User: Fold this.
Amino acid sequence: MRADMRPASPLAFVLAGALFLAACGSKQTPETQAPRPEIDHEQDDSGGVEMTQEFGGMNEEKVKKTIEKLYPTLSDCLMNGSKRVDFLGGEVAFLVKVNTAGTAEIAHAERSTLGDYASERCMLDTLEKSRWPKPVGGRIGLARTSIAFDPPSDVRPPVDWSESDVQSALAKNEGELAACGGGGPFEITAYVDTKGRVMTAGIAHADDAGDEAAACLVQAVEGIQFGSPGSWPAKVTFRR
Assistant:
């Protein structure tokens, strides 16, 4: 974030620190990965057979620079989310599949405890629309990064709930959840207010065909009536 764009705030400083760590080699540093090669046999122009790996490597330094350029836009996604839930926080781990044209074929939030689908989707849209370094030695390159986002220290955090705290409500609404279809597995995080209503929810998955089911699950979860956590909202992460 540029200081001349908006006044600094405690939240802005926390976020800037989290994003800066990613550029400095912490656990948030962009990662590249070359899975076990899958070989395709294609015929070249001369009639011979050309061997092409499905997955190639990525230039780590170029990937890091690409993500650093996206930090202002990614931070705006998170800042907008914090306007909806002032104690919004968590970590999001992204996977971007990049083709030989340097464009993202698909991007996932592989893991997320953020709990706000709009913020997650905003960041994914940014990653998908960006130009990326081309993979080397294969048709698809995998780029990974993660962002940790902490609310201001003067904001009271939500109560921690476990999966057992929401199992009965999930079971009562199994029909609505099942109607979203299969795929996944999905990791869902939700904030529940003092009356048991979902304030916002987010989701993570690594299923290339799972976006429609993910959006459906978020909508279904946001319609569930949970038990009251007491005098302060709760946050829970569960898997499906």
Observations:
- The longest strand covers residues 90-99.
- The domain at 159-239 is CATH 3.30.1150 (Fusion Protein Consisting Of Minor Coat Protein, Glycine Rich Linker, Tola, And A His Tag; Chain: A; Domain 2).
